[in-house]
Each structure stands twice: as structure tokens, then as C-alpha cells.
């Protein structure tokens, strides 16, 4: 069994992305400007934001975090989003999840201009994704495709099990794979007999945040296991797959690890979307 080295993807693709961005900067005589809106003080959020800032800095994308009090009123946040939409110097906007209970993510994401919505999660961008004419591919779904490309895996004719049906991971990923003619099954916390669903799948992508949910007994020989989930157990980051025992058993073909597997490729995919948004924002003027 091979642990997929996703660092290779970054090493190959980051220089290409930097060159593309430098050419666009010269062409438009300005820089991409990426705004991240964070509400509250969630610790995990801080580390996700840090990795986004780090890669944006490395590419040379202007970026800053708009940190808001967890008690901010909905109307105030709506005004901040609307002002960012209207600011022609802002190329890309990201509203970081999770939000406090009094704020409805589904409503707020729809206020972001679809061209600046680089997470690509607003209704317009999701609808376009379903119809196979996406503005941008949502970042985690894009990361999964990049990883499958890296191992030369064609999803056509493959049985794929996605564990988790969230708007941010499971649903966009399922639609992207369906459009690529994969046969897709999406599971959730109420799914009957998860083990048999996983056992019958050539590719399993898990995004639940339940540590070690997928056991070695569930794994089909020769399958590909991609771990999106991140949770903290005894101070350590863990994925959804019972990694140590699955590795010992050794009958899968590929697996990604947590941390350092899918996560960094999700951030790379976000950077690609920001640069696309920068390009589109300038072309459309
Ligand atoms: P959500 O909480 O929105 O969704 C979790 C999904 O997992 C739900 O559909 C839920 O089912 C399902 N689920 C929970 N428990 C089980 C179970 N026992 N069996 C089967 N399904 C279960 O989370 P997100 O989609 O936002 O994130 C999921 C995980 O992925 C988190 O750990 C997050 O940190 C990580 N993540 C990682 C990224 C990366 O790039 N590596 C990017 C984004 C997220 P139900 O619908 O029934 O509630």
C-alpha cells in the first residue's frame, strides 16, 4: 500500500500557478486581493486560516483576515459582505465556517458575488457545478480530483463511496464525480451498514470528522482511500480512517494521511480559484 505524497502535487503545481499569477499582475498592473471573514475565536479555524495566509503570501496574493466579534449582528455582517462585493480592488471573498448559531451560513454565502465566491459554495456556483458548467470547483472537491490525477486514477466505471453529505465537501464532490461518470454513493450518520458500502467501493472518500470511523475490516482489496476528515484526539490530529491498522493490514492500494494529505491540496485549490477570480474580475470590467 502506498501513502500518497501530496507534497509532489504542490511542488509541481505551485511554480506554474506563481508564473500564471505574475503574468496576470503584469497584464492588469495590479494584485489579487483576497479577504477572509472570520467570526469568533474558534481554534481550529485559526489554523485553517493560517495555512491559507501562508500560501497566499508565498504566491504574493494580497490577503487579510477580517476578524469579527462572535456577537456581531447579522445586518452588520451583511453590510461587510456587500461592501466587499462593491470594492473593485477586492478579487476574492471567503466566509470561514463555522459561524456562531445566530448566523445562517447558507443565507450569508448567497450574498457573496458569485465571481468573488472562491469557495464556490453559493447557490449560483453550486447550481452551475451540478450542471457541469462551474465557475469554480469547490476547493476540497478540486483537491480530490488533483490527488486522483496524481495517481492516474480515472473515475469512470469506478464505484465511489463518499462518507459525509455536507454542502462544503460531500455534495459538491458527489456532483463533480457524477459529471465524470463515476458511480457515486453518498453516506451519512444514519446510513445502514456503512461497512458494506465501503467494502463495495473502489474509491472511498471520507469527510465526517469522526476519528478512525472507517476500520480496516471495511476496506476492499486494492481500493483507494482519501481522508478529508480532521479531528483532534489527545492533542493529535486524526483522520476518518483507522490509519495505523489499515496500513498494517496493507490490502488497500493507496491512502492519504492526516495531517498533510488532502488539506494542503485544498489550500492550493483555493489559491487557483483566487487567481481565476482575479482574472475574471479584470476581464469583466
Ligand atoms: P459536517 O459536520 O458539515 O458534515 C459531516 C458529515 O459527516 C455529515 O454528513 C454527517 O452525517 C456525516 N457523519 C457524521 N458522523 C458519521 C458517521 N458516524 N457515519 C457516517 N457519516 C457520518 O462537516 P464538514 O463536511 O464541514 O467537514 C467534515 C470533516 O472534514 C471535518 O473533520 C472537517 O474538519 C474536515 N474538512 C477537511 C478539509 C480538508 O481539506 N482536509 C476541508 C473541509 C473539511 P449527517 O448528514 O447525517 O449529519
Automatic annotation (TrEMBL):
Tell me the superkingdom of the source: Bacteria
**What Pfam families does the database record attribute to this sequence?**
THF_DHG_CYH (PF00763), THF_DHG_CYH_C (PF02882)
Q: Which SUPFAM superfamilies match?
A: Aminoacid dehydrogenase-like, N-terminal domain, NAD(P)-binding Rossmann-fold domains
GO cellular component terms, semicolon-separated = cytosol
Write the Enzyme Commission number(s) for this entry: 1.5.1.5, 3.5.4.9
| GO aspect biological process, one term | methionine biosynthetic process
**Domain called Tetrahydrofolate dehydrogenase/cyclohydrolase NAD(P)-binding: residue spans:** 138-280
HAMAP family of this UniProt entry? Answer: THF_DHG_CYH
Q: What does this protein do?
A: Catalyzes the oxidation of 5,10-methylenetetrahydrofolate to 5,10-methenyltetrahydrofolate and then the hydrolysis of 5,10-methenyltetrahydrofolate to 10-formyltetrahydrofolate.
- The protein's name is Bifunctional protein FolD
Provide the gene name from the record.
Answer: folD
